């Protein structure tokens, strides 16, 4: 909806009447009084002009041969609930005036009227419009700030902050976004964040996991179907693309879709329309598409498993989420947030992590990423009787000490000499099958020295 003219200049007024003389006289009057007038000859043309121009005020006759002013009012209210509509009539009755007000008319004026009377009503309508628009904008800005503060994905590591900045940059646009990253890194969280900061925030955010449904059911969910199109289709069904009109539709795990579904998705992105299963006519859709995958789609294209043209349509803006092992600085913040959320749900004070528990969380590689961290802490909360979560409450896979791999995907850091020595001793022990005597021989040190070092490292 375009309402900028209320702020930027003179109000735009659409005049609707079936008499050319009245249209011209009113057009001259309004232009003289500082309005920007547009005219429509009859109700049908009036509806077209409302859709095309999105005026600030509508001034319409009630009795017209094709469409009445009250019908025009109803259409205007559907297009823009805040659009002031002023009805003019030469045959005013109390009943018709009450009907007009009940239908949402701003004012009901009887012909003939004085010019200054009409201008005064139009000025009040323009001021009403301005205040409604400003109030709506203020509420929307407050809502966005609240949502931004409340739902801003947690993290302070450099890689995560870069992700958030990119999300915040693309959010106000309508561009398609492809979010990539390992399972559990928070792809849907970022998608919701983009939606919350977008102009579509007041409309729905719908999502679907493309890998969770068979092809036939997935296409019905995405595009809808008509009654009788397949066994079990006992009535028409609206697809999620149509259901998310004016909002955001998140396609999770899009890399799992079949070539047939990919063709239909490409049509949606190119034509902005869908054809329900079993239908012959298309339906226009106005939804922003966000997609996510944990697959390397460029590799999938080389294998022939994913369409290159669909990839380029999706990959307008690419947002890659780093795995948790590359943002370990965020683990304490994430843990604090999860524990606070758990406490709120249980109506109790948040539990705290013992130092050794936090150390274990920081040392673990988290192959399941943020989702695995949340699940581990949920388990720890349940198993911890007191206010403090001890390391024993964590899953064994988290607390089990293991050698650091010599090659990893972690962001390289400068290791200490002790860390290098420890890693080398663990590597030799692994190669010797855990035999400390043979490991000591390989290291060129006495077994007693090896035992002392292992005890110091906590690996004895």
From TrEMBL:
InterPro entries: AAA+_ATPase, AAA_lid_NorR, CheY-like_superfamily, Homeodomain-like_sf, HTH_Fis, P-loop_NTPase, Sig_transdc_resp-reg_receiver, Sigma_54_int. CDD domains: AAA. The modification 4-aspartylphosphate is found at residue 61. The keyword Phosphoprotein applies. GO terms for molecular function: ATP binding; sequence-specific DNA binding. SMART domains: AAA, REC. Residues 12-126 form the Response regulatory domain. Residues 153-382 form the Sigma-54 factor interaction domain. Gene3D superfamilies: 1.10.8.60, 3.40.50.2300, Homeodomain-like, P-loop containing nucleotide triphosphate hydrolases. Keywords: ATP-binding, Nucleotide-binding, Phosphoprotein, Transcription, Transcription regulation, Two-component regulatory system. The keyword ATP-binding applies. It holds the Pfam family HTH_8. GO terms for biological process: phosphorelay signal transduction system; regulation of DNA-templated transcription. Signal peptide: none annotated. This is Fis family transcriptional regulator.
């Amino acid at each position: 909806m375009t309402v900028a003219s209320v702020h930027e200049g003179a109000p735009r007024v659409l005049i609707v009447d079936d008499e050319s003389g009245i249209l011209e006289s009113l057009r001259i009057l309004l232009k003289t009084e500082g309005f920007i007038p547009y005219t429509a000859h009859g109700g049908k043309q009036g509806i077209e002009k409302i859709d095309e121009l999105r005026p600030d005020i509508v001034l319409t006759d009630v009795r017209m041969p094709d469409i009445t002013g009250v019908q025009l009012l109803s259409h205007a209210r559907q297009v823009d609930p805040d659009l002031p509509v002023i009805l003019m009539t030469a045959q005013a009755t109390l009943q018709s005036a009450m009907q007009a007000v009940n239908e949402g008319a701003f004012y009901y004026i009887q012909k003939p009227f004085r010019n200054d009377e009409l201008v005064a009503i139009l000025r009040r309508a323009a001021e009403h419009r301005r205040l409604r628009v400003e109030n709506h904008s203020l509420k929307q800005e407050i809502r966005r700030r609240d949502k931004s503060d409340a739902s801003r994905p947690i993290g302070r590591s450099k890689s995560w902050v870069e992700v958030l900045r990119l999300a915040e940059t693309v959010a106000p646009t309508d561009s398609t976004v492809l979010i990539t990253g390992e399972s559990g890194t928070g792809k849907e969280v970022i998608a919701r964040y983009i939606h919350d900061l977008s102009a579509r925030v007041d409309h729905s955010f719908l999502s679907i996991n493309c890998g969770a449904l068979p092809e036939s059911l997935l296409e019905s969910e995405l595009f809808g179907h008509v009654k009788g199109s397949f066994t079990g289709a006992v009535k028409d069904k609206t697809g999620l693309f149509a259901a998310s009109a004016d909002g955001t539709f998140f396609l999770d795990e899009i890399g799992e879709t079949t070539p047939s579904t990919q063709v239909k998705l490409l049509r949606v992105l190119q034509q902005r329309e869908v054809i329900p299963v079993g239908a012959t006519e298309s339906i226009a859709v106005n939804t922003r598409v966000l997609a996510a995958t944990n697959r390397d789609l460029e590799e999938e294209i080389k294998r022939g498993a994913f369409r290159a043209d669909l990839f380029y349509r999706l990959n307008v803006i690419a947002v890659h989420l780093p795995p948790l092992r590359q943002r370990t600085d965020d683990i304490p913040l994430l843990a604090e947030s999860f524990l606070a959320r758990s406490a709120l749900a249980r109506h109790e004070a948040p539990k705290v992590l013992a130092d050794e528990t936090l150390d274990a969380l920081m040392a673990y590689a988290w192959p399941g990423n943020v989702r695995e961290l949340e699940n581990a802490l949920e388990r720890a909360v349940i198993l911890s009787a007191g206010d403090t979560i001890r390391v024993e409450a964590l899953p064994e896979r988290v607390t089990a000490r293991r050698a650091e791999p010599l090659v990893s995907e972690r962001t390289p850091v400068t290791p200490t000499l002790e860390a290098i020595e420890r890693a080398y001793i663990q590597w030799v022990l692994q190669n010797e099958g855990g035999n400390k005597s043979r490991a000591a021989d390989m290291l060129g040190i006495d077994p007693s020295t090896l035992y002392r070092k292992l005890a110091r490292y906590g690996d004895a």
